[in-house]
Write a structure and sequence with these properties.
Layout (H helix, E strand, L loop, with lengths): L3 H21 L4 E6 L4 E6 L4 E6 L9 H31 L18
Antiparallel strand pairs: 1-2, 2-3
InterPro entries: YbaB-like_sf, YbaB/EbfC
Protein name: Nucleoid-associated protein ACFOOI_06730
Subunit structure: Homodimer.
Length: about 110
């Protein structure tokens, strides 16, 4: 027989675990770099840019376009890395609550 109370308990547990996982995303960080480490970007699991480091020798008005390209590359590199870390954390938190269904990817659930 269908256990409605049991199911509601599981739903509440899942909601609690998902909120816990989302709260932890800001603690997960990743750094990306470009230009041989001359530009570094730090992002968190919520896909927020936290810091940019630029080697002083790159700051030349004549090279503004190159610097812009290096910043974009470093940020994209960091975002790609943190996405994998966030997915692993989400899988750990929801293990046993959400069944492993082929093609069901939690990573897409938190993209903006």
């Amino acid at each position: 027989m269908f256990d409605m109370m049991g199911m509601m308990g599981k739903v509440k547990e899942m909601q609690s675990k998902m909120q816990e996982a989302q709260d932890k995303l800001s603690d997960i960080t990743a750094e990306g770099e470009s230009g041989g480490g001359m530009v570094k970007a730090l992002v968190n699991g919520k896909k927020e840019l936290l810091n940019i480091e630029i080697e002083p020798e790159l700051i030349n008005p004549a090279d503004a376009k190159m610097l812009s390209d290096l910043i974009v590359a470093a940020v994209n590199n960091a975002l790609s890395t943190v996405e994998g870390k966030a997915k692993v954390e989400m899988e750990k938190v929801t293990e046993g609550i959400i069944p492993k269904i082929p093609g069901f990817d939690l990573g897409d659930m938190f993209k903006k």
